[in-house]
Inverse folding.
C-alpha cells in the first residue's frame, strides 16, 4: 500500500502537461480576477452560502455546462484518435482513461446537474412555493455534487484517471488488474456526488408533496413537476443500491476485501448486477425530467393544453415502475439462461409502450396547434424523430438472442447516444432557451440559437448515424484503433467530421450565453413566451421570495387560466404580508470542502489521514444539529418596492420573441 | 384519534391473539413436525411476513391518519424495491436456477 510520490503528478504526456498548465493558469486567473474586482465578499455572500433554490439551480447549470465541455473534449479526443486507421494520437491506456471519464462525466456530472439545476430553478416556482422543503439541505446537495465532480476531474492530472470504463466492471476494476489509484477516484468521487443526489431526491419528493400552493392538486401539476417528482422517487429507490455497490468497491480496492474477486470467494458479476440495478433506473432519472421539459415547451409553443395529461402521468408512473425491472438487459451475454434473459427481454420491450404513449401525446398536442418555431420548440421537434431512432434500436437490442450480436459493438454506442442526446441534451437546451429569461432576466439570442440548433442536430446525426453501421459491421466499442483492411475508415472519418460540427454547435451556445449576457434586451416582460404555468406569473429574473402572494390554482395550466380570467394578476398593497425566508449558511460549502479533502485522502489510500479528516465531517454534522437559526422576515416595504419595480413597468416592456 | 381512546380496543386484542397464533404455529411447525428443512423454512418465513403485515396494520396504524394512504403506498413501494433488488439479484446471479 501507500502511493509513490513520483506517481502523484502525471508527467510525460504533452496533452496532459498542457492541461496542467491551463488549469493552473485558469485558477490563477480566477483568483486574480476576483481579487481585482473585489468580489470575494459578494461571491461568498450571494453565491457560496446561498440557500436560494434558483441560485443553487444556476450553479448546478453552470457546473453542468462546464462538465459538458470537459466531457465533450474527451469525446473529440476519441473521435480524433479513431478518425484514421492506426492513428498514433492517443495510446491505448490514454484512450481507456478518456472513454471512462467521458462516460462518467457526461452522465453524472453533466446530464445530472443540468437536469437537477433546471428542476431546482423551476419546480418550486411551478407549484407556487417560496423554496424547496429543505433549503439548506439543497445547498449541501449541490456542494457535495460539486466536491465529487471536482475530485473526479482532477484525476487526470493528479494520480491518473480511472480506466475501466464508466461501468467499472470487475475483475478489471479490481486491485489485481488495475493496481493504480485511478479507480479509487471512481469509487470515492461518485460516492460523494451520489450522496448529494440522494438528498436532492428526498428534498424534491417532500417539496412536491408538501409545498404545493392552494388548489394545486397532484393532477393539476405541470408536467415538468410531475416528471421531476417521479424522477426523485426513482433516485431515492435506486441510488442507495449504487451507494452500497460503491462502498463494496471501495472496501475491495482500499481495504483488501473480496466482494467482487472470484479468487477470494466473491462474485465479479455481482458488481455488474448492482451497477445496473442502479444504472438502468438512472437512465430514467435523467430522461424523465427531460420529457417534462419537452411537454412544457411543446404545449407552450403550440398554444394548446398538453394532450392526454392523465395518460402522460400514468405513463410516467409506468416507466418508473418498469425501470426497476429491466437491468439484466445490460448483460444478457453473461448467459444467465433463457428464463432470465426472456423475462428481461419482455420487460425491456414493455417500456416502449408508455414511451410510445408519450410520443403520440406530444404529436397530438401539436396537431391543429398554432406552432411557433422558436429555438426551444425546434429542439423539441428535432427530439421526436431522433429519439424514435434511439428507441427503435433499443427494442432491437432488447431481444436477448439478438443482443449477443450487438453486444459491445458501436451499434450499442450509437443507440444510447441516440437516446441520451435527443432525450437529455436537446431537452436541456430547449429548457435553457425557454427558462433563461426566468433565471437571468434576458432572453438568449434566437438567431444564434438557431445556428446552435442546426449545427448541433446535423453534427449529432452525422456523428452517431455511421456508428450504427460500423457496429453492424462488427466494429467494437472502446477499441482505440482499427486496421485499414477492416474497411471502417470512411464511416469513422464521417463520424469525426460530425463531431467537429457538433462541437461548433456547442461553441455557438457558449457564444450565445456570452452575447446575450452583454447585449440582450433587459426590458422584457415576466411572460415573454405567453406561457401557461405558474413560474411565468412572477418577475424575470425571479425575486428571491418568488411570490409576494402565493397564487391560488384553479385549473391545469394555472397561469393560462389566470390570464384568460384576469384573476390574481395584480397585487394590492394591503395583500402584502411579511414573508419568512431561510438564512444563508456557510456550512454546506464547508461540508463540500471537507468531504473533498477526505475523499482525496481516501483516494490516495492515506487511511489514517482520511480518518482524521472525517472528524471534520462529524464536526459539521454536530454544528448543524445545534443550529437554531430560524431564518428571517422580509419587511412589507421591501416587498412592495420589489413588486412595484417589475409590475409597474409592464406597459413599456418588449413582450416579444426576437 | 378520538376513536382509539373509547371503548374496548378490539383491533389490538385481535392483533395480539393473531400474533400469538402465528408465533405458536411457527414454533409448532419447527419443533413438532418432521417436514423437510426447506419446507419448514418456507412456512415459518411466510408466517413471519404475514405477522409483520398484521402488526403494521393492527399496532402501527399504518393506514390511519391523514398520511395513511401515502404510508401504505410507501411501504408497498419499499417492499417492491427490496424484493426486486434482493430476490432479483439472487435469481439472476444464480443464472435462473
Amino acid at each position: 500500500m501507500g502511493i509513490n510520490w513520483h506517481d502523484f503528478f502525471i508527467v510525460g504526456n504533452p496533452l496532459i502537461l498542457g492541461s496542467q498548465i491551463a488549469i493552473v493558469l485558469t485558477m490563477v486567473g480566477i483568483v486574480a480576477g476576483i481579487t481585482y474586482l473585489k468580489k470575494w465578499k459578494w461571491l461568498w455572500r450571494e453565491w457560496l452560502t446561498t440557500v436560494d433554490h434558483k441560485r443553487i439551480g444556476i450553479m448546478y447549470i453552470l457546473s453542468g455546462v462546464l462538465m459538458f465541455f470537459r466531457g465533450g473534449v474527451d469525446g473529440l479526443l476519441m473521435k480524433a484518435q479513431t478518425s484514421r486507421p492506426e492513428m498514433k494520437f492517443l495510446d491505448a491506456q490514454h484512450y481507456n482513461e478518456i472513454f471512462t471519464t467521458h462516460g462518467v462525466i457526461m452522465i453524472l456530472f453533466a446530464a445530472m446537474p443540468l437536469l437537477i439545476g433546471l428542476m431546482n430553478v423551476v419546480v418550486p416556482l411551478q407549484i407556487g412555493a417560496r423554496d424547496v422543503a429543505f433549503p439548506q439541505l439543497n445547498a449541501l446537495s449541490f456542494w457535495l455534487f460539486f466536491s465529487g465532480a471536482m475530485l473526479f476531474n482532477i484525476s487526470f492530472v493528479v494520480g491518473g484517471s480511472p480506466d475501466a470504463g464508466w461501468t467499472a466492471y470487475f475483475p478489471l476494476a479490481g486491485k489485481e488488474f488495475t493496481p493504480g489509484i485511478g479507480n479509487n477516484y471512481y469509487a470515492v468521487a461518485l460516492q460523494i456526488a451520489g450522496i448529494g443526489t440522494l438528498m436532492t431526491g428526498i428534498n424534491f419528493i417532500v417539496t412536491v408533496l408538501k409545498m404545493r400552493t392552494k388548489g394545486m392538486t397532484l393532477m393539476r401539476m405541470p408536467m415538468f413537476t410531475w416528471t421531476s417528482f417521479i424522477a426523485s422517487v426513482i433516485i431515492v429507490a435506486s441510488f442507495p443500491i449504487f451507494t452500497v455497490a460503491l462502498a463494496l468497491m471501495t472496501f475491495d480496492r482500499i481495504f483488501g476485501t473480496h466482494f467482487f474477486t472470484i479468487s477470494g470467494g466473491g462474485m465479479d458479476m455481482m458488481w455488474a448486477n448492482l451497477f445496473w440495478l442502479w444504472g438502468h433506473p438512472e437512465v430514467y432519472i435523467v430522461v424523465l425530467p427531460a420529457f417534462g421539459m419537452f411537454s412544457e415547451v411543446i404545449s407552450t409553443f403550440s398554444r394548446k393544453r398538453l394532450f392526454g395529461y392523465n395518460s402522460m402521468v400514468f405513463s410516467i408512473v409506468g416507466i418508473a415502475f418498469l425501470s426497476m425491472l429491466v437491468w439484466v438487459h445490460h448483460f444478457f451475454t453473461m448467459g444467465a439462461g433463457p428464463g432470465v434473459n426472456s423475462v428481461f427481454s419482455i420487460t425491456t420491450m414493455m417500456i416502449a409502450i408508455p414511451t410510445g404513449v408519450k410520443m403520440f401525446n406530444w404529436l397530438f398536442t401539436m396537431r391543429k396547434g398554432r406552432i411557433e418555431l422558436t429555438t426551444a420548440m425546434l429542439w423539441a421537434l428535432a427530439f421526436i424523430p431522433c429519439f424514435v431512432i434511439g428507441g427503435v434500436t433499443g427494442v432491437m437490442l432488447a431481444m436477448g438472442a439478438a443482443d449477443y450480436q450487438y453486444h459491445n459493438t458501436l451499434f450499442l454506442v450509437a443507440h444510447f447516444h441516440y437516446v441520451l442526446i435527443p432525450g437529455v441534451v436537446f431537452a436541456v437546451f430547449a429548457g435553457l432557451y425557454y427558462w433563461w429569461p426566468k433565471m437571468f432576466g434576458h432572453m438568449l439570442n434566437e438567431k444564434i440559437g438557431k445556428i446552435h440548433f442546426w449545427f448541433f442536430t446535423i453534427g449529432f446525426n452525422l456523428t452517431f448515424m455511421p456508428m450504427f453501421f460500423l457496429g453492424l459491421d462488427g466494429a467494437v466499442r472502446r477499441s482505440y484503433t482499427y486496421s485499414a483492411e477492416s474497411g471502417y475508415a470512411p464511416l469513422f472519418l464521417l463520424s469525426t467530421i460530425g463531431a467537429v460540427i457538433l462541437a461548433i454547435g456547442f461553441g455557438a451556445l457558449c457564444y450565445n450565453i456570452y452575447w446575450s449576457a452583454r447585449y440582450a434586451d433587459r426590458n422584457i416582460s415576466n411572460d415573454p413566451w405567453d406561457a401557461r404555468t405558474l413560474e411565468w406569473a412572477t418577475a424575470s429574473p425571479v425575486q428571491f421570495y418568488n411570490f409576494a402572494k402565493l397564487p391560488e390554482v384553479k385549473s391545469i395550466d394555472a397561469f393560462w387560466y389566470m390570464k384568460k380570467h384576469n384573476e390574481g394578476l395584480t397585487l394590492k398593497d394591503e395583500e402584502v404580508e411579511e414573508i419568512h425566508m431561510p438564512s444563508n449558511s456557510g456550512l454546506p460549502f464547508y461540508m463540500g470542502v471537507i468531504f473533498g479533502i477526505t475523499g482525496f485522502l481516501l483516494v490516495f489510500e492515506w487511511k489514517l489521514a482520511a480518518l482524521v479528516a472525517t472528524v471534520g465531517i462529524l464536526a459539521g454534522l454536530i454544528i448543524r444539529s445545534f443550529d437554531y437559526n430560524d431564518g428571517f422576515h422580509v419587511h412589507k416595504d421591501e416587498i412592495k418596492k420589489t413588486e412595484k419595480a417589475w409590475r409597474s413597468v409592464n406597459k413599456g416592456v418588449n413582450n416579444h420573441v426576437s | 384519534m378520538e376513536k382509539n381512546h373509547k371503548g374496548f380496543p378490539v383491533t389490538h386484542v385481535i392483533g395480539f391473539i393473531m400474533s400469538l397464533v402465528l408465533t405458536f404455529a411457527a414454533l409448532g411447525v419447527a419443533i413438532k413436525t418432521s417436514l423437510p428443512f426447506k419446507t419448514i423454512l418456507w412456512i415459518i418465513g411466510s408466517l413471519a411476513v404475514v405477522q409483520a403485515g398484521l402488526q403494521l396494520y393492527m399496532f402501527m396504524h399504518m393506514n390511519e391518519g391523514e398520511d395513511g394512504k401515502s404510508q401504505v403506498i410507501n411501504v408497498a413501494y419499499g417492499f417492491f424495491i427490496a424484493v426486486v433488488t434482493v430476490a432479483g439479484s439472487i435469481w439472476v446471479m444464480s443464472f435462473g436456477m
Q: What stands out?
A: The helical segments of chain B are 2-5, 10-32, 37-58, 68-93.
